[in-house]
Amino acid sequence: MLSFWHMGRAFFKALLKGKAFMGKHSNSLKNKYWFGGLCMLCAALMLLSFFAEQVGGPFKIVASFTVIPMQQGVNQVGIWLHEFSDNFKTMKSVQAENEKLQEELDMLMAENNALQQEKYELERLRELYKLDMNYAEYEKIGAHVIGCDSGNWFSMFTIDKGSLDGVRVDMNVIAGNGLVGIVTETGPTWATVRSVIDDSSNVSAMVLSTSDRCIVNGDLTLINDGKLSFEQMENNDNTIVIGDQVVTSHISDKYLQGILIGYVREVSVDSNNLTRSGYITPAVDFKNLQEVLVITETKEDVKNKTNTDSEVN
Amino acid sequence: MKLKLKRVLLTVLFVLFGFVLQGTLFQRLALGSVKPNLLLVIVASVAFLRGPKEGMLSGFLAGILIDIQFGGLLGFYAFFYMVTGYVNGLLGGTYYEENMRLPVAFIAASEFCYGVLIYLLMFMLRSEFDFPYYFSHIIIPELIYTILVALALYPLVRLINYRLETEEKRSMGKFV
User: Fold this and answer.
1) Which of A40, A116, A130, A294 has its CA 20 to 30 A from that of A56?
2) Listed range (A268-272, A275-279, B21-25, B103-107) with the worst mean pLDDT
3) Same domain flag for A109 and A144
4) Cβ B24–A56 below 8 Å, yes or no?
5) How distant is the alpha carbon of residue A116 from its chain centre?
6) Are residues A81 and A126 in the same domain?
7) Domain containing residue A97
8) Residue A297 pLDDT grade (very low, low, confident, very high; cuts 50, 70, 90)
9) Measured on CA atoms in the order B157, B159, B162, B167, is the torsion positive or negative?
């Protein structure tokens, strides 16, 4: 500790005398030119990419030849190791589970019959209500998550499908039964997705039972608690029950209607007495995201389609 | 010439591996959703051992990779990592390389600046003023975790650098 203090003092003395930079790597004029040049390159890139989107194009193509295959490779090794260790763990439990599953199977067979009947009923009812906007009918493609954001500040990740597979910016990404996020960037063989728990994410949503609209915000301070916050919900007579489903709203520009975001966890009236806010438990487990589905239809497409339809009619 | 190429390739490989591991393996090593900043450790170590020029070039490469995949503005992270490489390169070589404390202290200082800068530019400008929260939940844990990684990684980078340097010296001797 003492020697550390001495070292520090010596360093600052040297710094004051201007000797600190006279070490092995002296700051030659050439280095200053390099530094200046790179600074200007960075500034130029920032300015260009601020005004024109396409500047990143060449870089993205380079990335899909270098980094992306490596990420895919490392990921494959990880999955393989995971499965390997899983095999050993599950060996014993599998047999016990098998018997239990046999029993369950009989039960489920009976249940399935009942559900089949209900399914026909549902289909009939759907036709009746013309619920053709259900998201079970959207075209989807599956993708693996191959890399996550390098920092701790944002929640973005890369997937292994890109523009060559038909992925475009603003496509919605879902996993299991809930909304994961939205595609923000695409390369030839990869795409970047911003998840709804990202601090800069805002989604226009509504409570399914009451159709009250609200804004769902990702919040870095809530990520560890597994929560999302929502706000700007009208404070009307509709009661919202804990556990109510929150889905994407019909007025959203980027998100398709009716995708499940999560369940209401807490709700309270704001101090202005006009709006309500609270927290949502997301439907997706963001910590263990491995496979996602990309809906290959953007809200823009849906809007254009309905426009042309109405023109024809 | 051949050796120089070897060195360039090794440095590029270092940065690439850092970037790939950061996004894949280190995701699994996160404690409380905070993971160490491996790239910063690599850039600062290379800069410390090899001087400002190689420092800023490897910093630029690391930064531009982050920009391509995750950044909004191309060149933002590139600029930050480049400056980190440059400054650490200037500071390196002042003391004996065998001493671990100073490089690690500088890596820690760079990491701290990184955290504060990201907060100022990306969060405070979006009017999120809860600095104490971000400070205690992101900046400090990331700092501690990064220092631990630096303690393990810096000797490795130094060892490889030492090997290359002796090889270079030997071949120089041959020609003279």
Assistant:
1) A294
2) B21-25
3) no
4) no
5) 34
6) yes
7) 57-132
8) confident
9) negative
Whether B151 contacts chain A with CB within 8 A = no
Chain A contact present for B107, CB below 8 A: no
The whole-chain average pLDDT of chain B stands at 84
* Amino acid occupying residue B154: Y
DSSP letter (8 states) at residue A200: T
- This prediction has a pTM of 0.69
Complex ipTM: 0.76
Residue A233 located in a structural domain: yes
Buried b (16+ CB within 10 A) or exposed e, B111-133: beebbeebbeebbeeeebeeeee
Please report the pLDDT score of residue A230 as a whole number: 92
Which residues in chain A touch residue B123, judged by CB atoms under 8 angstroms apart?
Answer: 153, 199, 220
Residues of B in contact with A49 (CB under 8 A): 73-75
Q: Report pLDDT digits (tens) over A47-59.
A: 887 777 666 677 7
Say if residues B79 and A42 touch (Cβ distance below 8 Å).
yes
CB proximity under 8 Å: B 38-97 to A: 39, 50-53, 56-57, 60, 64-70, 73-76, 78-79, 82, 86, 89-95
Q: How far is B160 from chain A (nearest CA, A)?
A: 18
Query: Shortest CB distance from B68 goes to which of A27, A60, A200?
Result: A60
Is domain B2-168 in CATH 1.10.1220, yes or no?
Answer: no
Instruction: Answer yes or no: is A198 within a domain.
Output: yes
